[in-house]
Amino acid sequence: MIKLQDDAHRLGVRARSWNNALLARPGDLDLSIEASRIEGRVPAALTRGRLLSNGPGWTKVGDRLAHPFDGHGYVRAFSFEADGSVRLRARFVDTPTYREELSAGRLVRRGLGTNPSPHFWKNIVATRARNVANTTVQRWSGKLLAAWEGGAPYSLDADSLETHGEETFGGVIAGQATLAHMKLDEAMKRLVTCSVKLGRTTSLTFREFDEAGKLVHTRDVDLPSSLFIHDFVITPHWYGLFSNLLSMKFGTLGRVLLGGATLVEAITTDLEAPGALYLVPRTSDAPLRTVTLPDRAFAVHYGNAFERDGAVYLDACLSPDIDFASAFGFQGPTVPIDPARPDADEPGRLFRVVVQDGADRGTWTQLAPHGLDFPRVHPAHDGRETPVLFGAARAALKHGAPFDSVVRKDLMDLERPADVWTAPENVFVGEPIFAPAAEREDEGHLLAMLYDGLREVSTLAIFDAKSLSSGPVARIPMPLMPYAFHGAWDEPAGS
């Protein structure tokens, strides 16, 4: 039996805090945090709304660590009640992989960065897909969709969080690797998904579904190389994504096939390829546009995109390279996660790319000095110009994840410095979610989870979205929650 916590302790207090947060497993929860226990007051504007989040809620399975990419999906719903209290409901996504590993008490299926056994011959036969639905959560068609990269999302009851099963939209995406990230076109009332088939070339299928879950539009496109794709953007006339060309370590790939390595160890970014942006026509079958960028750039997460006078504007976090295997500081299944490991890499930074009408070259401008990720905008503004962007960052500008700060960037006045709030030492900050005000699109509240692994508690922090540096207006105490990946602001219709 490995002693991960003892080993993490030897790495230092920051590593111990980080490991405790990533490995936390509070299980199913139904809690009410009374107003008297909350520091400050929950703003009345949040009443009847919910913060949703999803991420790996069970990562240490038996005596081995799964890569955080492969931990079991754990959906949390924080509901803001009329009496000022907050109700927390949390459930694991009840996938076949979850049920099998819960019963076995050990890893059973292989994942993107996980082998279930130290013995290669056991990994060879563990061929069933590991869809753990642990990356995003989104309300659509009266249900919640919990998604992962390796298959269809899972459908959850919007209130109880009970898992209903795979959501294939009537079989439309059955058996297809579909990106966890989806886009909402509020103007057209559509959910936009992207399915990916990876090989020597990359085949994408963009699909759009109406509010009843019916397929209303499809666009297929073949891209010329093997690409890493995790996210994308939409505008009224385009789907957009960076080229993110991959290079295969063929020796390691052979070991993957023989059960001795994982997929994330076998892929790397192609550092010889120039930076490029692909624009796929959304409303016609016109050819793909390939736009050359000023330098090499790789994007994991996008903020938003919009059109103005025929030009396309795209905000994204860009970095010169991506280290897939050591994401989150992962070092392997039998050693602790090291939060200092990503410090050796150049972090992603927020850029705005502009492509003029008909141009085959784009320009870009860096929007903030921080190592920044998890960029989020107004939840109804996918594909349209928006006044403000929020992200998670690091107070030490030369570093990125794990994050300790939240950032507000004014997109109407790009020269204005970003507004920043930083958590106490050894407390980690999750993805910030914007709950906009009804009256003004740049006002409202920002919600972010703070993870204090040393004290083994979490805090849901609520900020005035126009004044992050003033600190939280409310701090809601929670048990130590596992670090989440992505979330959403969920407001009932008509509220």
What would the keywords be for this entry?
495 residues, 6-stranded antiparallel sheet, 38% strand, single chain, globular, mainly beta, 6 helices, 5-stranded antiparallel sheet
Q: Tally of extended strands?
A: 35
- Largest sheet properties: 6 strands, antiparallel
Distance between the termini: 51 Å
- What share of residues are in beta strands? 35-45%
Please report the number of helical segments: 6
> Which outline best applies?
globular
Low-confidence stretches: none
How large is the radius of gyration?
Answer: 21 Å
Counted up, domains total 1
Mean pLDDT: 94
Helix content: under 10%
Return the structural class: mainly beta
Account of the protein in words:
By secondary structure, the protein is mainly β. The chain has one domain (4-490). 9% of the residues lie in helices and 38% in strands. It has six helices and 35 strands. A hairpin with a 2-residue loop joins strand 4 and strand 5 (64-65). Helix 1 (4-11) runs antiparallel to helix 2. It is globular, with a radius of gyration of 21 Å. The mean pLDDT is 94.
